[in-house]
Amino acid sequence: MQELSDKLKAPLTDLLLSIADDKLMLGHGASDWTGLAPILEEDIAFSAISQEEIAHAAALYEVVGTMHGRSADAVAFGREPSAYRCAELTSLGDDFDWSRAIVRQLFCDHFDLLRFERLARSLLKSVAALSKRIGAEEATHVEHADVWLIRLGRGGDESKTRAQAALNALSGAAAMLFEPTDGVDVLEREGIYPAGEGSLFDRWQEDVGRVVAEAGLTLEVVPSPADAVGGRRGRHGESFTGLLDEMCEVYRVEPEAAW
User: Fold this and answer.
1) 219-227 — which CB contacts under 8 Å span 24+ positions?
2) Contact yes or no for 86/21 (Cβ under 8 A)
């Protein structure tokens, strides 16, 4: 499939924005660790991951912009808060607690990898090709988060305690990663976002649970009610507007600036 019918543009836009907005927020949060990570090698690695998250978001914004005749920057920074489709977990601060930063990445990276695996099988060839490329890089993010959680869980008492506390603190927000965007069922039926075997939640829980168990830690994530409304439909926490204002400050001053 080369062309997208008009009836599929709105649901595909919401789906792609949910991924791009997640990644923009994650990249922004991870960038705060530049110069502050526990060791020099990790300072470099986490900075690189933050750059890749933002680059992935930019590529997806470009796709959405092309569909709607807008620039990628306008899509990324020119929307009202209610038009953002990111899950709350991606914009939660970590208070410079390394365990929380790693757990946030662990939850989100495993989820993103599953989404890109589905999109890589899309009948829309342009989306499939982009998703295959991003998915390969996403796999390295997953590996990074897995290794770090196991390292924290198998460390000393303080390390293990802080890692378990982070898992406990973020497990509730993790469930809302799976809030569906509007019209995702249509995309599944049309082969734009093909469903695989088992639900995304079950696969994610199995993948993340395996890492948590290897780290000697525990995790319980209960699916959100089917009627729960959150970030995927534009409902965000009180702190989101301030975070967005900070990210969009330069664009709002000079929206046509070229870098």
Assistant:
1) 219/167, 219/171, 220/171, 221/171, 221/174, 221/175, 222/175, 223/175, 223/178, 224/175, 224/176, 224/178, 224/179
2) yes
- Residues 221-231 have a mean pLDDT of 90
- What angle is formed at CA 120 by the lines to CA 119 and CA 126, rounded to 5 degrees? 90
| Closest to 176 measured CA to CA, from 124, 221, 121, 118 | 221
6-253: CATH topology: Ferritin (1.20.1260)
Per-residue pLDDT at 75 exceeds 80? yes
> What is the rounded distance in angstroms from the CA atom of residue 177 to the CA atom of residue 40?
31
- pLDDT grade for 80, boundaries at 50, 70 and 90: very high
114-124 mean pLDDT: 96
Q: Which amino acid is at 127?
A: V
**Choice between 108 and 44, residue whose per-residue pLDDT is larger:** 108
